């Protein structure tokens, strides 16, 4: 018995020291390491191939075992040999501890609720995609002073504090679409470097462009919000180099929207007019504020439905005839 216990204690450190080593799957870009499955929990001993500056981690198919990794932390980053780019999508991540050395990070389509940027200073990241997650608070953004592209669409963000944006002096592209709880935007804190703003299908109830200056902005999307008015004069003054604008809100009504479109046309700003398409093309109709193409009936389904209905009519007629014959026969036998 004593010998067996001694053996267990001897081999236990060896067993716990065994590491999981992941190999790169075949990929068209030689500098990119593609990983099709990963399992990781804090404390696990894992390793990855060296010599890659970009990791692409995504499940190959739904038939493969699901990822078992809920946190991306410094230990996992070190195991990857500190790459400059990481794409880790659809892996069920819940928490992200952002490395300071990362330049490009795509962590979209996960379950991320928490992003930690308190672990260091001088973040180098310029591109960050956190779309389609479960993020509510965006205070973590403010230390990322080198960001140029930020994707935060399709989350559960409740508010955008000015302090989160004012430090991002290099930001050019900001995507915040489909965050239904956002009712206002701190326009005065949006960096003057911004080129592209997307607030499509949020919950904006007001946009105020007074005393705002966005000289680099070329693309603005604030359609499908809860807006009841847009001061197009102030908008054009605040955004003098605007090239494309999507401003449709059903609450403004067709008359007001047409006036806005006239001002955009006069200033050579491109836009999509849902009213014209729906009026000029019978294949389209306005549905919940969108000009949507009508669904054409499938000829096969239509003919099949017609055949089913005809069969039902024949069966019903036969039943009525049988009932009448039985009634007549019963009456004659009295």
List keywords for this structure.
334 residues, three-stranded parallel beta sheet, Membrane glycoprotein lig-1, 7 helices, transmembrane helix, ten-stranded parallel beta sheet, LRR_dom_sf, single chain, membrane, alpha/beta, disordered N terminus
Taken from the alpha-carbon principal axes, the silhouette is flat
Secondary-structure element sequence? HEEEEEEEHEEEEEEHEEEHEHHEEH
Q: List the uncertain runs.
A: 1-18
Discrete helix count: 7
Could you give the count of β-strands? 19
Q: Sketch the major β-sheet.
A: 10 strands, parallel
Across the major sheet, the strand order is 2-5-8-10-12-13-14-15-16-17
Beta-strand residue percentage: 15-25%
Fraction of residues in H or I helices: 25-40%
Q: Give the mean pLDDT.
A: 86
Structural class: alpha/beta
Rg (CA only):
30 Å
Q: Alpha-carbon distance between the termini?
A: 100 Å
Would you spell out the secondary-structure blueprint of this structure?
Layout: H1 2-16, E1 20-21, E2 32-35, E3 39-40, E4 46-47, E5 54-57, E6 68-69, E7 71-72, H2 74-79, E8 85-88, E9 95-97, E10 104-106, E11 114-116, E12 127-129, E13 149-151, H3 162-165, E14 173-175, E15 196-198, E16 219-221, H4 232-238, E17 244-246, H5 253-266, H6 274-280, E18 284-287, E19 290-293, H7 299-332
Parallel strand pairs: 1-4, 2-5, 3-6, 5-8, 7-9, 8-10, 9-11, 10-12, 12-13, 13-14, 14-15, 15-16, 16-17
Antiparallel strand pairs: 18-19
């Amino acid at each position: 018995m004593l010998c067996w216990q001694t053996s267990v204690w001897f081999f236990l450190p060896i067993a716990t020291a065994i590491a999981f080593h992941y190999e790169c799957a075949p990929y068209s870009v030689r500098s990119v390491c593609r990983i099709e499955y990963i399992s990781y929990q804090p404390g696990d001993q894992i390793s990855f191939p060296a010599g890659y500056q970009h990791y692409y981690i995504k499940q190959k198919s739904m038939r493969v075992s699901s990822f078992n990794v809920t946190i991306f932390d410094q230990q996992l980053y070190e195991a990857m040999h500190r790459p400059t780019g990481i794409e880790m999508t659809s892996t069920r991540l819940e928490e992200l501890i952002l490395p300071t050395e990362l330049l490009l990070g795509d962590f979209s389509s996960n379950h991320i609720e928490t992003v930690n940027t308190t672990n260091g200073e001088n973040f180098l990241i310029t591109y960050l995609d956190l779309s389609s997650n479960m993020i509510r608070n965006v205070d973590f953004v403010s230390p990322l002073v080198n960001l140029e592209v930020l994707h935060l669409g399709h989350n559960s963000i409740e508010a955008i504090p000015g302090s989160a944006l004012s430090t991002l002096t290099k930001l050019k592209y900001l995507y915040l679409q489909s965050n239904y709880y956002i009712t206002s935007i701190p326009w005065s804190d949006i960096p003057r470097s911004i080129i592209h703003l997307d607030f499509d299908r949020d919950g904006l109830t007001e946009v105020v462009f007074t005393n705002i200056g966005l000289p680099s902005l070329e693309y603005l999307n604030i359609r499908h919000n809860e807006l009841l008015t847009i001061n197009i004069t102030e908008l054009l003054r605040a955004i003098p180099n605007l090239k494309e604008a999507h401003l449709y809100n059903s609450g403004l009504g067709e008359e007001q929207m047409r006036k806005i479109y006239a001002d955009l046309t006069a200033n050579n700003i491109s836009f999509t007019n849902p009213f014209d398409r729906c009026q000029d093309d019978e294949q389209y109709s306005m549905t919940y504020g969108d000009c949507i193409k009508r669904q054409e009936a499938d000829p096969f389904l239509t003919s099949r439905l017609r055949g089913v209905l005809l069969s039902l009519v024949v069966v019903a007629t036969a039943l009525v005839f049988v009932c009448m014959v039985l009634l007549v026969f019963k009456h004659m036998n009295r």
